[in-house]
Amino acid sequence: MCSQLRTTGGKSGHSGLICCERGRVQIRALLNRFFTVQGINALLSSVSEQAAGMASGVAIDDEVIAYYNLIKVRRQGEDERERFKLVIMRLSEDLKSIIVDHDNCLKVKDVANTGDVFKTVISKLPSKECRYALYDCTYETKESVKEDLVFIINAPDDASLKSKMVCASSKVDLRKKLPGVKFEWQINDPADRDVSNLVEKLGGKGTVKSLEGKRV
């Protein structure tokens, strides 16, 4: 409206400009009266946090944190066989929370006699549904044998668009609940599932000599 008033000739245009400017002054006065600089900054911060929460809107089940703590623990002897090798997490049916996918988690004893540990692990990630996973990966470098947790985002191209959007928007919040995870590996298409892609995440062929007992 102000731009129109500026183009109007005569006294009416001049009066309109004065009215518009007075309105701005009054608004500034109201803001200065009710909000300090610190108050405005606090308000903006609160709004940003609420917007971030709304962007995801997905709760993280307490059991996810419990399983994360379990997979971190190193054990000895027979107890080592009971340690988790792979923890799979999925979206609930209503897409409102991240929960543990009990049917597809693996313990060390589950992969002890498999011919290819990596293939067993990767087979637990569906090709048409989104999943998160924590994989306790054993690999050998030129210096030593290492065990590191790898955070996997499995968001296949064939998964539903809505689930992929929720999966992507929830990743940051989930990672915050899993501190200390060193590596992240995202899988979108069948080619991403190849062991060479994980090897690159771990440092590349120049650094990694073998993964799960197999040369790379």
TrEMBL record:
One of its GO terms (cellular component) is actin cytoskeleton. Transmembrane segments: none annotated. SMART domains: ADF. InterPro entries: ADF-H (IPR002108), ADF-H/Gelsolin-like_dom_sf (IPR029006), ADF/Cofilin (IPR017904). Residues 57-203 form the ADF-H domain. Keywords: Actin-binding. SUPFAM superfamilies: Actin depolymerizing proteins. GO terms for molecular function: actin binding. GO terms for biological process: actin filament depolymerization. Gene3D superfamilies: Severin. Belongs to the actin-binding proteins ADF family. PANTHER family: COFILIN-RELATED. This is Cofilin-1-A. It comes from Anabarilius grahami (Kanglang fish).
